[in-house]
Design goal:
Layout (H helix, E strand, L loop, with lengths): L1 H12 L4 H4 L9 H29 L9 H4 L16 H15 L4 H27 L7 H20 L5 E4 L6 E4 L4 E2 L8 E2 L1 H23 L5 H20 L2 H7 L3 E2 L4 H20 L8 H18 L3 H7 L1 H24 L11 H7 L4 H21 L5
Antiparallel strand pairs: 1-2, 1-5, 3-4
Helix pairs in contact: 3-5, 3-11, 5-6, 5-11, 5-12, 6-7, 6-12, 7-8, 8-12, 8-14, 9-11, 9-12, 9-16, 12-13, 13-14, 13-16
Length: 392
């Protein structure tokens, strides 16, 4: 919005005495400037809206009055979390959407990402509301959530498949330039050349990236500040990847796919970082508000679609290594329990409790220790993900 407004003003002032006075508006052409503006705007919005939304959620009694699964399994919190408002993801999504609308130049990539965020935030809001009504932690049936997520992901995949070639890769020493659709080809970490996968496999990868990332972040959201902090670290990685993918010179130098318009996703990532930092102010231990499914499903889905839009869905697995570990721990725990129950009649567990962060709580780690150590692991994963830009 601000970009278009600035360009209209510059066009109006062209050739007049106002042209030199309004020359500063040319700064809005630069993605770096708009990204910085988006980050600051979403951060300030979060700080301003935070106390109001927390108070509003408390007035509506949208708090967690039931014992969570960790407490039911013997994990005791130093600070009683009952009554803490949930649905705090409203604050993140609201700040993110407003800031992106103000600072980004709208294109297909931004619109698809925003659509995914809003749909998944709506799904998460419904799930949080269902949990509050039941006060039992039940929420929306997993089947309903998966159907909604896969429907969105398949729609995105088919839409991208029907687009003409929207990316290109300049290979050093090769005269021809590789052109591709955003679905039919992907890049593998530590490998220089694109892998052609075709339409069907491409759509499956899109679906798994969006649905898997959305649910992985959701599973990580179990301790004060854990999901928020890890989201910030992964968001920082994709801030770099989107900027490089949208810059034809940088993409050609690093030999990664250049995607026209992907640079505007940098503005979105910057807004996400600002919103995440602002929310962490209220979500750090002891939390004044929980993200809930409203925020975790939306943020995870956003990472999934951004990774797809820049041809890097597998880099997300590396950058979001903590999210992957949390999701895998749940899958292994449930799978092994069912398998051993069928084989022996008694279900056995691999971890003391899943997701993984609760396993370490059961081992005696303090909540703040778990969160900080997971932050460290997430930073290491982010460094490896960034290293894939050169180590190929």
């Amino acid at each position: 919005m601000l970009y278009l407004l600035s360009q209209q003003i510059l066009d109006w002032a062209h050739g007049s005495e106002w042209e030199s006075r309004l020359a500063f508006l040319r700064l809005f052409k630069y993605i770096t400037v708009r990204s910085a503006g988006a980050a600051v705007t979403s951060l300030l919005l979060c700080w301003w809206l935070g106390p109001k939304i927390i108070r509003w959620l408390k007035d509506l009694k949208f708090g967690q009055e039931y014992a969570d699964k960790a407490e039911e399994s013997g994990v005791r919190h130093v600070v009683d979390k009952k009554g803490t408002p949930t649905m705090g993801g409203i604050l993140i999504v609201l700040s993110l959407v407003i800031s992106t609308m103000l600072w980004a130049e709208w294109n297909a990539q931004v619109e698809l990402t925003m659509l995914s965020v809003l749909v998944l935030a709506g799904l998460g809001f419904y799930d949080d509301y269902a949990k509050i009504l039941k006060q039992s932690g039940g929420g929306t049936p997993p089947r309903v959530k998966l159907i909604t997520q896969f429907s969105l992901a398949i729609f995105v995949g088919i839409y991208l498949w029907n687009l003409p070639a929207t990316s290109e890769l300049h290979l050093l020493g090769v005269k021809s330039v590789w052109h591709s659709n955003l679905v039919s080809s992907v890049m593998l970490p530590f490998y220089k050349y694109p892998l052609h996968v075709g339409a069907i496999v491409g759509v499956i990868i899109v679906a798994l990236a969006i649905v898997g990332s959305s649910n992985a972040v959701n599973l990580t959201d179990g301790l004060d500040g854990l999901a928020t902090g890890c989201t910030l670290i992964v968001g920082f990685v994709f801030l770099f990847f989107t900027y490089l993918a949208g810059n034809i010179k940088a993409a050609a130098y690093l030999q990664i796919p250049y995607v026209s318009g992907a640079g505007e996703l940098t503005v979105f990532c910057a807004a996400l970082l600002g919103a995440g930092l602002g929310f962490l102010w209220f979500n750090c231990h002891p939390a004044q508000v929980f993200m809930g499914d409203t925020g975790s499903l939306a943020l995870g889905g956003a990472f999934g679609i951004i990774a797809v839009l820049i041809h890097q869905p597998f880099v997300l697995v590396i950058a979001g290594g903590v999210f992957v570990a949390e999701a895998v721990s749940v899958i292994l725990q449930k799978g092994w329990f069912k398998f051993t129950r069928i084989r022996t009649g008694t279900g056995q567990r691999i971890f003391l409790m899943a997701p993984l962060h609760h396993h370490f709580q059961k081992k005696g780690w303090h909540e703040s220790q778990v969160v900080m150590r997971f932050y460290i692991l997430c930073v290491l994963c982010a460094v490896v993900a960034l290293a894939t830009l050169k180590l190929r």
